[in-house]
Amino acid sequence: MNRTLRLLAASALLASVGAHAQDQTVHFTEANGTRVTLTSGQPAPDHYGPPPAFTALDVHHKGRITRAEAHAYPPLLNDFDYVSHRADSISRAQYEHWVKSQN
Fold first, then answer.
1. pLDDT tens for the chain, residues 1 to 103
2. Is residue 46 part of a domain?
3. Closest CA to 96 of 54, 64, 58, 57
């Protein structure tokens, strides 16, 4: 129980300090003498550049972007189910609405 409380306290500390968006390391020693190092943080974000034109992603020229076509732009692929409302493709209007939300 003591170990759990210490881990929860360390997690809470890291959560409050983690808002600074940098790696954090906490060292502490448990009651039985075990040294613990707890490290947390976020990796640097990937930069994919601005979203490409709809026509650049719609390689089959069907007026919709499929999941396979969305692989060309990872941020869109990441949001595919949200943008498409869980359908199998994204319309031009859905894509343009998503692009506006990225700014």
1. 567 666 666 666 656 554 555 688 899 999 999 999 988 888 778 889 999 999 999 999 999 999 999 999 999 999 999 999 999 999 999 999 999 999 7
2. no
3. 54
